[in-house]
UniProtKB/TrEMBL annotation:
Entry protein name: HTH lysR-type domain-containing protein
Pfam families associated with the record: HTH_1, LysR_substrate
Lineage: Bacteria, Bacillati, Bacillota, Bacilli, Lactobacillales
Classification via InterPro entries: LysR_HTH_N (IPR000847), LysR_subst-bd (IPR005119), WH-like_DNA-bd_sf (IPR036388), WH_DNA-bd_sf (IPR036390)
Protein source organism: Secundilactobacillus collinoides (Lactobacillus collinoides)
Keyword set includes S-adenosyl-L-methionine: no
Length: 303
């Protein structure tokens, strides 16, 4: 027994004939006949007397009609009520690394609120390693970060973005008028970089070793905005993903002549979303948003 069979039965009773019901439902008459035949077989009774020109509902059919009509009316009322009910607001704790905070995240959340204005967010900015720990300890509901080194069976990480590496130098640097730079041209200068535990720092170190580059010294910073402030003063150069470099005053971002694989950015969230519709909405939206917004595109200026 299914919803179509019940709807067909109700319409035939109210129309008085299979032909009128078929026209009303915009279905072929044999479709109605087959559906009612299966329904009668399942119920073990005859619903219509087909001996005359018109199909007359039997006493058993009339009894069944009462329950079908009540059930379908109740179902329709419930459907309308759910569809018109205001969506329940959710509080979502979103974590992301620092460089996404100046433009990408604000623009994304602004778009999100156009669709889901009732949902609220709290924002947490930390390094990718710290974000992973926050997600594991349930201090964040979802995070946008690089892929953690350890696998947690209770968490899902899905790649959503890519960031390409650039060299950031002061706009007063002798190479600032160039359109591309090779690391060999920066050999012996001061490198400004992230802590050794950082995934980005490991990429940078491997690149320097491969190209036989030895910095004069390496100065370590926890986040890239401070690092870029030192770069703007001509204290050294930085190799980093194209974050806010293009919009940072006093900085020139140059593509590398060397081939460097881009850094993948992931969205991380618990593998059980059924109990949290707000979080499920946010995960679905962010995945779709990232498909059409490139961190490296000129109009984004992030990453």
């Amino acid at each position: 027994m299914n919803l179509n069979q019940l709807t067909y039965f109700k319409t035939i009773v109210e129309s008085g004939s299979y032909m009128k019901a078929a026209t009303r439902l915009n279905v072929a008459q044999p479709t109605l006949s087959n559906a009612i035949h299966r329904l009668e077989k399942e119920l073990g009774t005859t619903l219509f007397d087909r001996s005359g020109r018109n199909s007359q509902v039997t006493p058993q059919g009339m009894d069944f009609y009462y329950y079908v009509n009540e059930s379908l009316t109740s179902l329709e009322s419930g459907t309308k009520r759910i569809q018109t009910r205001p969506q329940q607001a959710s509080l979502i704790r979103l974590g992301f690394f620092f460089s996404l905070g100046s433009q990408f995240i604000p623009e994304m959340i602004s778009d999100y609120w156009q669709t889901y204005p009732n949902d609220q967010f709290t924002f947490i900015q930390k390094s990718s390693n710290e974000l992973h720990q926050a997600l594991k300890s349930q201090r964040c509901d979802l995070v946008i970060c690089t892929l953690p080194s350890d696998n947690d069976p209770h968490l899902i990480y899905t790649p959503v973005l890519q960031q390409h590496f650039v060299v950031a130098i002061s706009d007063k640097h002798p190479l600032a008028k160039r359109h591309q730079v090779s690391l060999t041209e920066l050999d012996g200068e001061t490198l400004l970089s992230f802590p050794l535990k950082s995934r980005v720092r490991k990429v940078i170190n491997n690149l320097l070793v491969a190209e036989h580059i030895t910095p004069k010294q390496t100065i370590v910073f926890e986040e890239d905005r401070t690092m870029l402030g030192f770069v703007a003063q001509g204290i050294g150069y930085a190799i980093l993903p194209r974050t806010e470099v293009t919009s940072f005053h006093g900085i020139k971002a140059l593509p590398l002549a060397e081939m460097v694989p881009p850094q993948s950015i992931f969205i991380g969230y618990p593998n059980e979303l059924d109990h949290n519709p707000g979080l499920r909405r946010a995960v679905t939206f962010i995945k779709a948003y990232c498909q059409t917004h490139d961190l490296d595109s000129g109009d984004q200026r992030v990453g």
